[in-house]
Protein backbone atom coordinates (compact mmCIF):
# COMPACT_ATOMS: atom_id res chain seq x y z
CA UNK A 1 0.00 0.00 0.00
CA UNK A 2 2.83 2.44 0.87
CA UNK A 3 4.55 1.95 -2.49
CA UNK A 4 1.30 2.44 -4.41
CA UNK A 5 0.44 5.56 -2.40
CA UNK A 6 3.94 6.98 -2.98
CA UNK A 7 3.67 6.48 -6.76
CA UNK A 8 0.21 8.03 -6.75
CA UNK A 9 1.44 11.09 -4.82
CA UNK A 10 4.45 11.48 -7.12
CA UNK A 11 2.32 11.48 -10.27
CA UNK A 12 -0.37 13.74 -8.77
CA UNK A 13 2.11 16.43 -7.78
CA UNK A 14 1.54 19.32 -10.21
CA UNK A 15 5.18 20.32 -9.74
CA UNK A 16 6.19 17.01 -11.34
CA UNK A 17 3.54 16.52 -14.04
CA UNK A 18 0.97 18.64 -15.86
CA UNK A 19 -2.50 17.52 -16.90
CA UNK A 20 -3.35 18.44 -20.49
CA UNK A 21 -5.38 17.01 -23.35
CA UNK A 22 -2.78 18.30 -25.79
CA UNK A 23 -0.22 15.53 -25.26
CA UNK A 24 1.76 14.52 -28.32
CA UNK A 25 4.46 11.85 -28.60
CA UNK A 26 7.20 12.15 -31.24
CA UNK A 27 7.34 9.33 -33.82
CA UNK A 28 9.44 6.39 -32.68
CA UNK A 29 9.14 7.21 -28.97
CA UNK A 30 7.28 5.10 -26.43
CA UNK A 31 4.38 7.27 -25.19
CA UNK A 32 4.74 6.39 -21.50
CA UNK A 33 8.53 6.62 -21.55
CA UNK A 34 8.29 10.05 -23.19
CA UNK A 35 5.61 11.12 -20.69
CA UNK A 36 7.58 10.04 -17.59
CA UNK A 37 11.06 11.24 -18.52
CA UNK A 38 10.68 14.01 -21.10
CA UNK A 39 7.40 15.88 -21.56
CA UNK A 40 5.79 15.18 -18.16
CA UNK A 41 2.53 16.30 -19.77
CA UNK A 42 -0.51 14.13 -20.47
CA UNK A 43 -4.08 13.18 -19.67
CA UNK A 44 -5.61 10.48 -17.48
CA UNK A 45 -4.60 7.52 -19.66
CA UNK A 46 -0.95 8.57 -19.44
CA UNK A 47 -1.06 8.90 -15.65
CA UNK A 48 -2.97 5.64 -15.11
CA UNK A 49 -0.80 3.62 -17.50
CA UNK A 50 2.38 5.06 -16.00
CA UNK A 51 1.30 4.09 -12.49
CA UNK A 52 0.34 0.61 -13.65
CA UNK A 53 3.71 0.09 -15.35
CA UNK A 54 5.61 1.35 -12.31
CA UNK A 55 3.65 -0.94 -9.98
CA UNK A 56 4.15 -3.99 -12.17
CA UNK A 57 7.88 -3.27 -12.31
CA UNK A 58 7.80 -3.69 -8.51
CA UNK A 59 5.85 -6.95 -8.79
CA UNK A 60 2.57 -5.38 -7.59
CA UNK A 61 -0.53 -6.52 -9.56
CA UNK A 62 -2.46 -3.67 -11.16
CA UNK A 63 -5.05 -3.07 -13.86
CA UNK A 64 -6.54 -0.13 -15.75
CA UNK A 65 -10.22 0.81 -15.48
CA UNK A 66 -12.12 2.90 -18.03
CA UNK A 67 -15.27 4.65 -16.90
CA UNK A 68 -16.89 8.01 -16.26
CA UNK A 69 -16.83 10.67 -13.61
CA UNK A 70 -20.01 11.77 -11.77
CA UNK A 71 -20.79 14.43 -14.39
CA UNK A 72 -22.49 17.73 -13.61
CA UNK A 73 -25.72 18.34 -11.74
CA UNK A 74 -28.53 19.74 -13.88
CA UNK A 75 -31.16 21.52 -11.78
CA UNK A 76 -33.74 21.37 -14.58
CA UNK A 77 -33.89 17.58 -14.41
CA UNK A 78 -32.63 17.23 -10.81
CA UNK A 79 -30.05 14.66 -11.89
CA UNK A 80 -26.41 14.40 -12.83
CA UNK A 81 -25.68 14.47 -16.57
CA UNK A 82 -22.68 12.40 -17.68
CA UNK A 83 -21.16 13.31 -21.04
CA UNK A 84 -18.32 12.01 -23.15
CA UNK A 85 -16.01 14.63 -21.68
CA UNK A 86 -16.48 12.92 -18.28
CA UNK A 87 -14.71 9.77 -19.51
CA UNK A 88 -11.84 8.84 -17.23
CA UNK A 89 -9.17 6.15 -16.73
CA UNK A 90 -7.60 5.13 -13.42
CA UNK A 91 -5.59 2.19 -12.05
CA UNK A 92 -6.63 -0.38 -9.48
CA UNK A 93 -4.11 -2.21 -7.30
CA UNK A 94 -4.64 -5.71 -5.92
CA UNK A 95 -3.99 -6.35 -2.23
CA UNK A 96 -4.46 -9.96 -1.01
CA UNK A 97 -6.69 -9.09 1.99
CA UNK A 98 -8.61 -6.23 0.39
CA UNK A 99 -9.00 -7.07 -3.31
CA UNK A 100 -8.80 -4.40 -6.02
CA UNK A 101 -8.36 -0.90 -4.59
CA UNK A 102 -8.75 2.17 -6.88
CA UNK A 103 -6.09 4.91 -7.05
CA UNK A 104 -6.16 8.35 -8.68
CA UNK A 105 -2.71 9.38 -10.00
CA UNK A 106 -3.87 12.04 -12.48
CA UNK A 107 -2.22 15.38 -11.69
CA UNK A 108 -4.95 17.97 -11.32
CA UNK A 109 -4.45 21.55 -10.22
CA UNK A 110 -8.19 22.20 -10.68
CA UNK A 111 -9.17 19.36 -8.33
CA UNK A 112 -11.21 17.75 -11.10
CA UNK A 113 -10.05 14.29 -10.03
CA UNK A 114 -10.02 13.92 -6.25
CA UNK A 115 -7.88 11.37 -4.45
CA UNK A 116 -9.53 8.14 -3.32
CA UNK A 117 -9.53 7.70 0.46
CA UNK A 118 -8.10 4.42 1.66
CA UNK A 119 -10.13 2.20 3.96
CA UNK A 120 -13.44 3.64 2.75
CA UNK A 121 -14.49 0.89 0.37
CA UNK A 122 -17.60 0.47 2.53
CA UNK A 123 -19.10 3.55 0.87
CA UNK A 124 -19.66 1.44 -2.22
CA UNK A 125 -22.32 -1.22 -1.52
CA UNK A 126 -20.65 -3.52 -4.01
CA UNK A 127 -17.40 -3.54 -2.01
CA UNK A 128 -18.95 -4.17 1.40
CA UNK A 129 -19.06 -7.86 0.65
CA UNK A 130 -15.84 -9.74 1.37
CA UNK A 131 -15.74 -11.37 -2.07
CA UNK A 132 -16.40 -8.90 -4.98
CA UNK A 133 -15.58 -11.32 -7.72
CA UNK A 134 -18.93 -12.39 -9.30
CA UNK A 135 -17.35 -15.65 -10.48
CA UNK A 136 -17.15 -16.94 -6.83
CA UNK A 137 -20.89 -16.82 -6.21
CA UNK A 138 -21.09 -20.23 -4.51
CA UNK A 139 -18.40 -19.52 -1.91
CA UNK A 140 -19.67 -19.44 1.66
CA UNK A 141 -23.26 -20.41 0.92
CA UNK A 142 -24.87 -21.69 4.14
CA UNK A 143 -25.76 -25.34 4.04
CA UNK A 144 -23.25 -26.33 1.36
CA UNK A 145 -21.10 -29.14 2.75
CA UNK A 146 -17.99 -30.50 1.04
CA UNK A 147 -18.11 -34.13 -0.07
CA UNK A 148 -15.96 -36.24 2.28
CA UNK A 149 -12.85 -37.79 0.79
CA UNK A 150 -12.38 -41.53 0.68
CA UNK A 151 -14.20 -44.48 -0.80
CA UNK A 152 -17.81 -45.43 -0.30
CA UNK A 153 -18.27 -47.64 2.81
CA UNK A 154 -18.99 -51.27 2.16
CA UNK A 155 -22.57 -52.35 2.68
CA UNK A 156 -23.30 -54.93 5.34
CA UNK A 157 -26.06 -57.47 5.42
CA UNK A 158 -28.56 -56.43 8.12
CA UNK A 159 -29.61 -60.04 8.54
CA UNK A 160 -26.10 -61.37 9.10
CA UNK A 161 -25.07 -62.33 12.61
CA UNK A 162 -21.97 -61.37 14.57
CA UNK A 163 -20.13 -58.06 14.58
CA UNK A 164 -20.92 -57.39 10.92
CA UNK A 165 -24.69 -57.67 11.40
CA UNK A 166 -27.14 -54.78 11.39
CA UNK A 167 -29.06 -53.23 14.26
CA UNK A 168 -32.62 -54.37 14.67
CA UNK A 169 -35.41 -51.83 15.17
CA UNK A 170 -36.40 -53.53 18.38
CA UNK A 171 -32.98 -52.78 19.91
CA UNK A 172 -33.49 -48.99 19.64
CA UNK A 173 -34.88 -47.65 22.91
CA UNK A 174 -37.60 -45.03 23.19
CA UNK A 175 -35.11 -42.54 24.66
CA UNK A 176 -32.83 -42.96 21.65
CA UNK A 177 -35.72 -42.32 19.27
CA UNK A 178 -36.62 -39.17 21.20
CA UNK A 179 -33.05 -37.90 20.98
CA UNK A 180 -32.91 -38.59 17.25
CA UNK A 181 -36.21 -36.78 16.63
CA UNK A 182 -35.10 -33.83 18.77
CA UNK A 183 -31.82 -33.64 16.87
CA UNK A 184 -33.63 -33.65 13.52
CA UNK A 185 -36.01 -30.92 14.71
CA UNK A 186 -33.11 -28.73 15.87
CA UNK A 187 -31.29 -29.38 12.60
CA UNK A 188 -34.38 -28.38 10.62
CA UNK A 189 -34.82 -25.18 12.65
CA UNK A 190 -31.16 -24.27 12.12
CA UNK A 191 -31.64 -24.84 8.40
CA UNK A 192 -34.66 -22.52 8.37
CA UNK A 193 -32.71 -19.80 10.19
CA UNK A 194 -29.74 -20.14 7.82
CA UNK A 195 -32.01 -20.14 4.76
CA UNK A 196 -33.88 -17.07 6.02
CA UNK A 197 -30.64 -15.15 6.55
CA UNK A 198 -29.28 -16.27 3.20
CA UNK A 199 -32.38 -15.04 1.39
CA UNK A 200 -32.28 -11.65 3.16
CA UNK A 201 -28.89 -10.18 2.18
CA UNK A 202 -27.92 -6.69 3.29
CA UNK A 203 -25.61 -5.55 0.49
CA UNK A 204 -26.06 -5.10 -3.23
CA UNK A 205 -23.27 -7.57 -4.02
CA UNK A 206 -24.87 -10.19 -1.73
CA UNK A 207 -28.22 -9.71 -3.48
CA UNK A 208 -26.54 -10.17 -6.86
CA UNK A 209 -24.81 -13.37 -5.74
CA UNK A 210 -28.06 -14.81 -4.33
CA UNK A 211 -29.87 -13.94 -7.55
CA UNK A 212 -27.19 -15.71 -9.63
CA UNK A 213 -27.46 -18.85 -7.49
CA UNK A 214 -31.27 -19.02 -7.60
CA UNK A 215 -31.40 -18.19 -11.30
CA UNK A 216 -28.91 -20.98 -11.99
CA UNK A 217 -30.96 -23.44 -9.92
CA UNK A 218 -34.04 -22.30 -11.84
CA UNK A 219 -32.37 -23.17 -15.14
CA UNK A 220 -30.98 -19.77 -16.18
CA UNK A 221 -27.28 -20.08 -15.44
CA UNK A 222 -25.01 -17.15 -16.22
CA UNK A 223 -23.08 -17.68 -19.46
CA UNK A 224 -19.29 -17.18 -19.70
CA UNK A 225 -18.43 -13.58 -20.54
CA UNK A 226 -22.00 -12.37 -20.05
CA UNK A 227 -22.19 -8.87 -18.57
CA UNK A 228 -24.69 -8.05 -15.81
CA UNK A 229 -26.92 -6.07 -18.19
CA UNK A 230 -26.81 -8.83 -20.83
CA UNK A 231 -27.76 -11.38 -18.19
CA UNK A 232 -30.55 -9.09 -16.98
CA UNK A 233 -32.04 -8.79 -20.47
CA UNK A 234 -31.94 -12.58 -20.91
CA UNK A 235 -33.58 -13.17 -17.52
CA UNK A 236 -36.32 -10.68 -18.43
CA UNK A 237 -37.21 -12.99 -21.33
CA UNK A 238 -36.87 -16.12 -19.19
CA UNK A 239 -39.00 -14.72 -16.35
CA UNK A 240 -41.36 -12.28 -18.14
CA UNK A 241 -43.62 -12.02 -15.10
CA UNK A 242 -40.71 -10.46 -13.19
CA UNK A 243 -39.09 -8.50 -16.03
CA UNK A 244 -39.39 -5.18 -14.21
CA UNK A 245 -37.76 -6.51 -11.03
CA UNK A 246 -34.96 -8.21 -12.98
CA UNK A 247 -34.22 -5.03 -14.92
CA UNK A 248 -34.18 -2.91 -11.77
CA UNK A 249 -31.89 -5.35 -9.98
CA UNK A 250 -29.40 -5.66 -12.85
CA UNK A 251 -29.34 -1.90 -13.46
CA UNK A 252 -28.94 -1.14 -9.76
CA UNK A 253 -26.09 -3.64 -9.45
CA UNK A 254 -24.19 -2.00 -12.32
CA UNK A 255 -24.57 1.41 -10.67
CA UNK A 256 -23.48 0.06 -7.26
CA UNK A 257 -20.50 -1.80 -8.70
CA UNK A 258 -19.09 0.74 -11.13
CA UNK A 259 -20.38 4.22 -10.27
CA UNK A 260 -18.56 6.61 -7.89
CA UNK A 261 -19.39 5.96 -4.20
CA UNK A 262 -21.72 8.96 -3.83
CA UNK A 263 -23.84 7.68 -6.73
CA UNK A 264 -23.44 3.96 -5.99
CA UNK A 265 -24.95 4.32 -2.52
CA UNK A 266 -28.27 5.45 -4.05
CA UNK A 267 -28.82 2.10 -5.79
CA UNK A 268 -29.25 -0.01 -2.66
CA UNK A 269 -32.93 0.73 -1.95
CA UNK A 270 -34.09 -0.02 -5.51
CA UNK A 271 -32.05 -3.24 -5.60
CA UNK A 272 -33.51 -4.41 -2.28
CA UNK A 273 -37.08 -3.70 -3.47
CA UNK A 274 -36.44 -5.58 -6.70
CA UNK A 275 -35.00 -8.54 -4.78
CA UNK A 276 -38.05 -8.77 -2.48
CA UNK A 277 -40.28 -8.96 -5.56
CA UNK A 278 -38.05 -11.36 -7.52
CA UNK A 279 -37.13 -13.79 -4.73
CA UNK A 280 -40.46 -15.70 -4.41
CA UNK A 281 -40.70 -16.18 -8.18
CA UNK A 282 -37.19 -17.64 -8.37
CA UNK A 283 -37.92 -19.94 -5.42
CA UNK A 284 -41.10 -21.19 -7.13
CA UNK A 285 -39.12 -21.90 -10.30
CA UNK A 286 -36.45 -23.75 -8.30
CA UNK A 287 -38.97 -25.90 -6.41
CA UNK A 288 -40.84 -26.52 -9.65
CA UNK A 289 -37.70 -28.03 -11.18
CA UNK A 290 -37.08 -30.16 -8.09
CA UNK A 291 -40.63 -31.58 -8.11
CA UNK A 292 -40.67 -35.07 -9.70
CA UNK A 293 -42.41 -35.09 -13.06
CA UNK A 294 -45.30 -37.46 -13.66
CA UNK A 295 -44.81 -40.24 -16.15
Class per helix and strand makeup: mainly alpha
Count of alpha/pi helices: 9
Uncertain parts: 115-171
Number of strands: 7
Overall mean confidence score, pLDDT: 77
- How far apart are the termini? 62 Å
**Largest beta sheet, briefly?**
3 strands, antiparallel
* Rg over CA atoms: 27 Å
**Order of H and E elements:** HEHEHEEEEEHHHHHH
**Proportion of residues in extended strands:** 5-15%
Helix content: 40-55%
- What is the number of independent domains? 2
Largest sheet: spatial strand order: 3-6-7
Choose one word for the global shape. elongated
Describe the structure.
By secondary structure, the protein is mainly alpha-helical. It folds into two domains: 2-119, Roll (C8orf32 fold), CATH 3.10.620; 121-140 and 175-295, no CATH class. It has helices spanning 2-12, 31-39, 44-57, 174-198, 204-217, 228-238, 243-258, 261-264, 268-290, and strands at residues 18-19, 41-42, 62-68, 72-74, 79-81, 87-95, 99-102. The strands form three sheets. A three-stranded antiparallel sheet has the order 3-6-7. A two-stranded parallel ribbon has the order 1-2. Strands 4-5 form a two-stranded antiparallel sheet. A hairpin with a 4-residue loop joins strand 4 and strand 5 (79-81). Helix 5 (204-217) runs parallel beside helix 9 (268-290) and helix 6 (228-238) runs antiparallel to helix 7 (243-258). It starts with a helix and ends in a 5-residue tail after the last helix.
Write the layout of secondary structure elements.
Elements: H1 2-12, E1 18-19, H2 31-39, E2 41-42, H3 44-57, E3 62-68, E4 72-74, E5 79-81, E6 87-95, E7 99-102, H4 174-198, H5 204-217, H6 228-238, H7 243-258, H8 261-264, H9 268-290
Parallel strand pairs: 1-2
Antiparallel strand pairs: 3-6, 4-5, 6-7
Helix pairs in contact: 1-3, 5-9, 6-7, 7-9
Amino acid sequence: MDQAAAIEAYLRDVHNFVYTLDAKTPPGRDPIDYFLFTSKRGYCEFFATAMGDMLRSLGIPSRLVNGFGPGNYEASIQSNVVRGEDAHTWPEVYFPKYGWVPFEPTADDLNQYSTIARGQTGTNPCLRDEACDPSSITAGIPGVVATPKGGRPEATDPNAGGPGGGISVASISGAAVTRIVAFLVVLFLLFLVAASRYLRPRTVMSVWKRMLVLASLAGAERRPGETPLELGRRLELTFPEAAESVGALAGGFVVAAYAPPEIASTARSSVMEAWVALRPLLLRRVFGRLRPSRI
